[in-house]
Amino acid sequence: MPIHITLLVLFAALLHASWNALLRGNADRLWSMTIMCVAIASVSLVCAACMAPPAAASWGYGVLSALLHIGYNLFLVRSYRVGDLGQVYPISRGSSPALITLGAAAFAGESIAPEALLGIALVSGAIISLALRGRSLSVPSLPYALGTGCFIAAYSVTDGIGTRLSGAPLAYTVWMCALWGLLMPAVYIGLRGARSLFSIRPGMGAALVGGVVSLLAYTIVIHAMNEAPMGAVSALRETSVLFAALIGYVFLGETLTARRVLACAVIVSGILLIG
Questions:
Q1: Which helix (H) or strand (E) holds 201?
Q2: CB 229, CB 7: distance < 8 Å
Q3: Over the chain, what is the mean pLDDT?
Q4: What pLDDT sits at residue 84?
């Protein structure tokens, strides 16, 4: 993988961990996630107005991805209700690279070098190990965390194919994100009503910033998937758990054990094999 792509995806990983920490730190995470989507839709619509739409062959993938992102949002919010950042995040993010590698092979005909496969396995295994408590994986929100990982894999493979058919990865990204950002508030209003969504609350500014950060991070990832194998890009992106572990420790009062430090070292080894 080209070094500039590796560095870009690692930067996206830092951004991704930051907005997840913002979401985890808010009491009403469904509202925070929806406000983030309002910011995503606003920025995406402005950008989309300044560029031509992507090729028609990619539109179906963009619509499917937007719907899958809604499922991801709802599962992620549900996971954080009963799980902390240090458990939910590693399970949901660690399970996705292997699923994406399989999906990319099945639906996009991708092949990947043996050393990169080993790197993906190291990254995924080490990430999931961060969620261990003692010798067991006792996570009340485990089904939702794994479901979140499945949604991540599904929309990542969808976007990987869509962006390659689009002829314009940036245009594909902003149009897909505009649709996703508009659908999520509609879902929220259906669940809680418009007054609940647009009431001014503490944390609104942070959620709006988180939405812009999320959009930037995913734009980088989609660009990378247009240039490199999806599974390898995903594994690098999921190294955001390194940053999430530090953020959880410093700002959210979560534990950073010797086992987590060792897992982080294994993740770094996987990064070197992939990059």
A1: none
A2: no
A3: 83
A4: 65
